[in-house]
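Handout, section B. The chain below has 256 residues.
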Amino acid sequence: MIDTHAHLHDRAFDPDRDRMIERMREAGVTTAITVGCDLEDSAHALEAAEQYGLFASAGIHPHEAKDAPQNIAAALAPMLDDRRTVAIGETGLDYFYAHSPPQSQQRVLREQIRIARRRATPLIFHHRDAFDDFCAILRDEWDSGMRGVVHCFTGDLMQARTYVNEFGLYLGIGGVITFKSAGAVREAVTSTGADHLVLETDSPYLAPVPRRGERNEPAFLGATAQMLAELLRISREELAAITDRNARGLFGLPAG
């Protein structure tokens, strides 16, 4: 299995990062993308990817948009040129917390989509409580043939169909799908089908049942995979094969 979205460079893992990586591999998670949220954090993500033989993304999260440089392309370029950086992000819109003004979030999102279009690089999107504005920006900036994923998908059936059918995006499925309150997410995912899904943990956040409330880590990815396989009425092995294929195609990861 491939964990397409984690923050393995996060300070929460400082006490036992080496052992956490060992547990990840013992649990059958072959690799992970450790995801950057601002310039400094993206540099740390890349360092961790280099150290542990993983992959990284580099980008500016909507929470950090207010502090983004004017020339985002120049600031990100050294990290995006690295062979282990496989995506731009996470970027997007988050009006729930609104740590940055909407105008700043929108500027930074548009610019990162434009960078991705020029570089033919996939995008990792974060979206919360901003569906209309998010889709409006995609309609302005997105080109067919671009690749991306809405990470930590928690939307409904209408949103899932919009992301997949209109924009060709993948949905990142994490521990939330195991929560009792996530009925709408399960309905949306079941309707979407495995061909547009990838697995993720968002470690150290959002641990799945039965580990909910604990620090999340890639070794827990199996609980999400099991739930998803049951929803789609396929074996866990088939689910893992399909989502790994999707992840490799989306991010250009090597086979094996």
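Note. The mean pLDDT is 97. Compare this with the example in section A.
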